[in-house]
Specification:
Blueprint (H helix, E strand, L loop, with lengths): L2 H32 L6 H30 L5 E5 L5 E2 L5 E5 L8 E7 L2 E7 L3 E3 L9 E9 L5 E3 L3 E3 L1 E2 L3 E7 L9 E8 L6 E9 L7 E5 L11 E4 L6 E9 L4 E2 L6 E3 L8 E6 L4 E3 L5 E6 L5 E6 L4 E3 L5 E3 L2 E3 L7 E6 L8 E6 L3 E4 L5 E2 L4 E7 L8 E5 L2 E3 L6 E4 L8 E7 L14 E3 L1 E2 L1 H48 L4 H7 L8 E4 L9 E4 L11 H29 L1
Parallel strand pairs: 2-10, 20-27, 29-36
Antiparallel strand pairs: 1-3, 3-6, 4-5, 4-7, 7-8, 7-9, 11-12, 12-15, 13-14, 13-16, 16-17, 16-18, 19-21, 21-25, 22-23, 22-26, 24-25, 26-27, 28-30, 30-33, 31-32, 31-34, 34-35, 37-38
Length: about 575
């Protein structure tokens, strides 16, 4: 029973309770009027008439209330799915319950905003096609009995249809320490029920430098009921998105915007180098951003302060894996990406003032030292300055520099510098803030181990290739020697002796065999025997001489053979 029906029922009950003493009083008045003396007949007659009149009015009022109570909600309309609001392209079913007998004993009709819109015969269900915003309004159904003159109106149900909502994705934290967990939250606006959420990791599209495709994250194939997703052990920069769907058939929201989880730690497989090597730069200053790692198709990306993501081709000059900004650099997060790799990220600030903070682009390893500086637009360093961490003055600034030795996690924070005196012509002497990140020594060690393993792997691969080439050369060489031996058996001693005349005194040759894959090959032959033999070393020398002479002086060799014939 809805709120309106409940209110009417309570009104009926209260009215009956109020009327009960009135009717009792009226009955007593009538009984008293019949016992009056004759001398007061006219007065009593008037009272009786008034009593009858009052009784009649109250009776009609009571009858009206009873009739209203009896027909307050003699049919019930409800909607499936019972979501509010509904969204365009969703389907809705109206169900009219006569609440008496069989559903097939009645004929049903439905109306919107008190205007008839469909007759549904003996079916108490009406399924709409995809709804639009024009379908918003108040709906009601009427049940007509097929045999007796019984008409029952239902309650009114309000239906609101809105455009499909857009999603807002948030990540927390956006700059986690390596290995920390990150929570993705996907918010539907305005809030509504019944959604399942799908979580994706972005993959760059090489054909379009400003767009991404998506891969479903584990456990997200059929969607999750929760509007949040936890990433465990986040170590590298990565982009994420979400989508939501509900209903049968399912309608989907558009994809959310891409949100990134940033990592400043250097990834040996993909790294970003910034020149000049600092996080803050003056407006109008040119930057060079270079990508290095296991790819030949890098692109430099930027997410500006409004969250808009674009590639270097939109705001800089691309030269292979390097991006030059000229004087069009803007504040934002910069990084490198390929189809399979994403580099460390650098949160670069472009400052329009006269002073910038000089700080490390990459995180500082715990236990190491780092020096912060304060650079003036017209000079290298500003010496008479103060340094601040999280807006708290630091006491140890010396000659324009702040040395932090043996840094720990407690040194992380936002740093800035401020000039104590203003040089002539300069007004703004406070730099912007930059975050100093400190990384775990184990992370640095793991990166070093990765580099060592990478170098060892590359060297091992090169050595293996060289060994395979040498084996192939030796195989082809031995095969050629076998062919030479078969030819050697048909040569005369004179020919054998003549052939060996070309041998050097030490009996060694360096030759390049035509068509051979070897770069070079050293062949060792035995000393020339007194008489020709079929010894293998001599045969090898013959083969080499013949091949070399054939390539450079085949006619001369042929003439010698004829002369001895």
């Amino acid at each position: 029973m809805d709120l309106k029906a409940l209110r009417i029922a309570l009104l009926c009950k209260c009215a009956l309770q109020i009327m009960s003493p009135c009717l009792n009083s009226l009955n007593m008045l009538l009984q008293k009027g019949t016992k009056e003396s004759v001398s007061h007949k006219q007065s009593v007659r008037v009272d009786v008439r008034m009593g009858h009149t009052l009784f009649g009015v109250l009776g009609l009022f009571s009858l009206n209330i009873l009739l209203d109570c009896g027909h307050a909600q003699d049919a019930l309309l409800h909607i499936e799915p019972n979501w509010s609001p509904l969204f365009t392209e969703e389907k809705v079913t109206f169900i009219c319950d006569s609440r008496e007998g069989n559903d097939t004993d009645w004929n049903y009709s439905f109306s919107r905003n008190d205007g008839f819109f469909t007759t549904n015969g003996t079916s108490n269900r009406y399924k709409s096609s995809s709804v639009t915003t024009e379908d918003s309004g108040e709906y009601q159904c009427v049940a007509h009995h097929k045999i007796r003159p019984d008409r029952r109106e239902s309650n009114k149900v309000s239906l609101t249809v809105s455009n499909v909502p857009r999603l807002v994705l948030t990540v927390s934290p956006s700059w986690p320490s390596p290995g920390d967990s990150v929570t993705l939250t996907c918010t539907v606006g305005p809030p509504s029920a019944g959604w399942r959420f799908f979580w994706l990791k972005t993959v760059p599209q090489q054909s379009n430098t400003n767009y991404y495709s998506g891969e479903l994250l584990p456990g997200s194939t059929t969607g999750t009921e929760q509007d949040s997703y936890i990433l465990h052990g986040q170590t590298h920069t990565a982009g994420y998105g979400c989508r939501a769907g509900r209903g049968d058939p399912v309608i989907y929201t558009p994809y959310s915007g891409v949100k990134f989880v940033w990592s400043g730690g250097v990834n040996p497989a993909a790294s970003l180098t910034v020149s000049p090597q600092r996080l803050q730069h003056f407006s109008g200053e040119s930057l060079s951003l270079s990508c290095e790692g296991n790819s030949t198709e890098w692109r430099v990306m930027r997410a500006d302060e409004d969250g808009f993501v674009s590639s270097c081709s939109s705001w800089g000059r691309v030269n292979r894996s390097t991006c030059n900004t000229d004087d069009r650099a803007r504040s934002g997060v910069y990084w490198c990406e390929s189809a399979t790799q994403t580099s460390n990220a650098a949160n670069i600030t472009i400052h329009s003032g006269d002073v910038i903070l000089v700080s490390s682009v990459h995180p500082v390893t715990e236990g190491h030292s780092v020096t912060l500086g304060c650079k003036l637009r017209t000079e290298n360093l500003l010496y008479n300055v103060d340094f601040y961490k999280n807006d708290q003055l630091l006491p140890n600034g010396v000659r324009g520099e702040l040395l932090l030795s043996a840094v720990t996690k407690s040194h992380e924070g936002f740093y800035k510098c401020r000039g104590r005196t203003s040089p002539r012509g300069l007004d703004t002497l406070t730099s912007a803030e930059s975050w100093l990140s400190v990384k775990d020594p184990e992370e640095a060690a793991s990166s070093f181990v990765f580099v060592v393993l990478l170098v060892v792997g590359l060297v091992s691969g090169v050595l293996l290739i060289i060994l395979l080439l040498l084996f192939l050369c030796r195989y082809r060489r031995s095969k050629a020697s076998g062919l030479s031996r078969s030819q050697r058996t048909n040569q005369s001693p004179a020919t054998d002796h003549m052939t060996n005349q070309g041998q050097a005194p030490d009996g060694h040759y360096a030759s390049l065999l035509p068509g051979d894959s070897c770069l070079y090959e050293t062949i060792g032959g035995s000393e020339e025997p007194e008489q020709g033999t079929n010894d293998e070393p001599e045969t090898s020398v013959y083969q080499n001489v013949k091949m070399e002479t054939t390539a450079e002086g085949g006619k001369h060799l042929h003439g010698q053979n004829q002369g001895n014939g």
